[in-house]
Write a structure and sequence with these properties.
The chain is α+β, with helices and mostly antiparallel strands. It is built from three helices and five strands; from the N terminus they run αββαβββα. It has a five-stranded mixed sheet with strand order 2-1-3-4-5, covered by helices on one side. A hairpin with a 2-residue loop joins strand 4 and strand 5. Helix 2 crosses helix 3. It is elongated.
Length: 124
């Protein structure tokens, strides 16, 4: 999973008057391992498959499908509207949602729900 540096450092992007502002608020510096662990744990709860980190928890003897998930951009637009762009194996997705509180976690959970739906479709 690839995460933009500003999310890992605690910087947050807000769009005001068509200008991107880098802010140090709303999101604390979050280590990459948190994003990866939260994503893997959530997918293991939602889906009947065994998700692991690559290459750390990867056993080359077993057949695996590899998903490369990349957060392309994450920012706040106007009051309480959060935007998240991400890709799964190169296919791009865009989420935009008005959220009253804890916007970061809620829109990240929306991304995980969307990823689980994409995986379900692939294995039908």
């Amino acid at each position: 999973m690839e995460i933009p540096d500003y999310l890992l450092s605690g910087n947050f992007v807000e769009v005001k008057n068509n200008t991107l502002l880098y802010l140090k608020k709303e999101i604390p510096g979050i280590p990459q391992t948190f994003f990866e662990r939260y994503l893997i744990d959530s997918l293991n709860i939602k889906l009947p498959y065994n998700f692991k980190s690559y290459p750390w928890d990867f056993n080359k003897k077993s057949p695996y499908k590899i998903y490369k998930i990349k957060i392309l951009d994450y920012y706040k637009y106007r009051d309480n509207i959060y935007v998240l762009n991400y890709s799964i194996n190169g296919d791009k997705f865009y989420l935009k949602k008005k959220i009253n509180s804890n916007g970061y976690k809620k829109i990240y959970d929306m991304m995980i729900n969307n990823i689980s739906e994409q995986i379900k479709k692939e294995f039908k």
